[in-house]
Amino acid sequence: MRVIGLDFGTKTVGVALSDESGIIASPHITIERKHATKLRQTYAQIEDIIREYEVGLIVLGLPKNMNNTEGERVEATREFGENLERRTGISVEYIDERLTTIQADRILEATGVAHSARKEHIDKMAAAIILQSYLDMKANNS
To answer: Can you give the pTM of this predicted structure?
Structure first.
């Protein structure tokens, strides 16, 4: 079963996909929007990806605070996830995403991506880290 990983931000959503066996996560795209509250097209793009790749599960990064508390961003992320689940009929699972953007930036730097070009890739790379963490956790609990 293919799994989609999402890094939900205020103006972007990083998207990653697993391979068909659900073992390896790869960055896919970054969905951008002009306004933080305008999500209709974002939902539609994610739904298109889900259909095209026959996704069976959604993994959504949960942006907890460093002290493990939940703030406004977590609330907005959960609302986004609930709407996705309702619209697609596919279960949404949440995973802690603290420090994934920093990890993504370090990976891009280590692979030689210029600082000026990292913005284009960082959200989808963070989504891949979120998704790979989830896939690894599931594999280790099997």
So the answer is: 0.89
